[in-house]
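Researcher: I'd like a structural prediction for the single chain below. Treat it as a standalone chain; there are no partners to consider.
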Amino acid sequence: MAKAKNPRRVADNEARAKLRMIRTSPQKLNLVAQLIRGKKVETALADLQFSHKRISHDVKKCLESAIANAENNHGLDIDSLIVSEAYVGKNLVMKRFRARARGRGARILKPFSELTIVVREQEEVPAEAKSEAA
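Model: Treating it as a single chain, here is the predicted structure.
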C-alpha cells in the first residue's frame, strides 16, 4: 500500500522551479527577478542572457528548469508560457569577523537567498477578439 499522492501546489496550467542556497543577498536577487516578472519566457531568457548582473546566470538556469518542468512533467506548450511569478526569499546567513583596530572585530554577513519561478501557460487570444475588445 503506497502513500497518497501529494496534491499539486500550483494550478494545472502552471509549473514551478525553485533554486535554493544562492550566494547573494535577497535584495540583489530581487532586482533580477523583477526583470523577468510577467514576461514571455523567450523575452525573459533573452533579458537574462544579456544582463550584466552576476546572478542572472543562476536565475536563467532556474527559469530553464521551470520551462523543462512545464514541458516534460505537465505537458504544457513552451511557446505560450509566461513568467507569472518570480519571488525571492531569505536563506541562511554566514557570519564572519574581520579584525579591526584596537583589538576589535567587525561583523561580516554573507547572506544566501532562494528563488522560486512559476511559469503559466497563457491561452492565445485571437486577433479579432483583441480588436473587438478595444
